[in-house]
Design a protein that fits this description.
One of its GO terms (molecular function) is ATP binding. This protein has 9 helices and 10 strands. The chain has 259 residues and is α/β, with parallel strands linked by helices. The structure holds adenosine-5'-triphosphate. Adenosine-5'-triphosphate binds at residues 19, 22, 24, 44-50.
């Protein structure tokens, strides 16, 4: 975890996001410092995943500005919702990795190829170099011996660990996790948590996690943000949020999930 707070690498300024008549984010402001590990917790439907999807440019937004790794993206007034251009998308995908709830591994590729393909195709890395790096990463997540297996031969927890290695293979500055354990049986959560806990010690890596698993919020974050109805109601260190939450809504939420 970080001791020093650096300059922001992610910054939402007055971002508004609507799905038809539903406003999910209304003039949303939020920033994450380089190297910071931040967890978003909060009720279902409050807009947490939408924040991540906007960051990955998987969702356009209608108003405001998003700054990511020194590049600003904003809606052009009068031209409709902001849609990332191909060039923006490539730039963002270079800096930002995402780990999804559903692993999303390529079923027809071995574990090793799943990790190797993006650096070779997107970054133009030599295959031998990408393979050496992939083996190091698979070793880090405890799966080097499964490199020639196919995803279907792995447990959900193992598949998610491969997905983390795959995201890291792109050497991202920012790693986003969207409920990385919610598709897993409870006994498999621990192995994924332990890999993410290890990553939390990587000083330069910025991590933003959306999770319903409070152990993640407690164990890997510098800052926990309680999100409700499209805004951050309360934020602080894990000790503050879990030990002495100030807002009634935060207390209600925590007592419902920790019950
Ligand atoms: N593609 C979409 N079209 C229409 N509405 C959507 C779409 N995606 C999300 N929403 C709505 O936006 C709101 C916020 O959804 P979001 O998935 O961001 O919430 P969340 O806090 O991540 O919830 P959960 O914890 O259940 O994943 C919800 O009301 C959801 O129904």
């Amino acid at each position: 975890m970080t001791d020093t707070i650096n300059k922001p690498i992610i910054e939402f300024s007055n971002v508004t996001k609507r799905f038809g008549i539903l406003t999910v984010l209304d003039q949303f402001n939020f920033s994450v410092a380089q190297g910071e590990k931040v967890t978003l917790i909060g009720p279902s439907g409050s807009g947490k995943s939408t924040v991540l999807r906007i960051l990955m440019t998987l969702e356009p937004f209608q108003e405001g500005r998003l700054t990511l790794a020194d590049t600003s993206y904003h809606e052009e007034r009068g031209k409709g919702p902001f849609q990332a251009s191909e060039r923006h998308l490539r730039e963002i995908r270079k800096h930002v990795g995402m780990v999804f709830q559903s692993f999303n591994l390529f079923p027809h590729m071995t574990v090793l190829r799943n990790v190797v393909e993006a650096p070779v195709r997107v970054l133009g890395m030599a295959r031998a170099e990408a393979e050496a790096r992939a083996i190091e990463l698979l070793d880090m997540v405890g799966l080097a011996d499964k490199k020639d297996h196919y995803p279907v031969q792995l447990s959900g927890g193992q598949q998610q660990r491969v997905a983390i290695a795959r995201a890291l293979a792109m050497r991202p500055r920012v790693l986003l996790f969207d409920e990385p354990t919610s598709a897993l049986d409870p006994q498999l959560v621990g192995e994924v948590l332990s890999v993410i806990r290890g990553l939390a010690h990587e000083h330069d890596l910025t991590m933003l996690l959306v999770t319903h698993e409070m152990r993640f919020a407690r164990e890997v974050s510098d800052r926990v943000c309680f999100f409700d109805k499209g805004r951050i109601c309360e934020q602080g260190s894990p000790e503050e949020i879990f030990g002495t939450p100030k807002q009634e809504r935060t207390r209600e939420f925590l007592s419902s999930v920790l019950a």
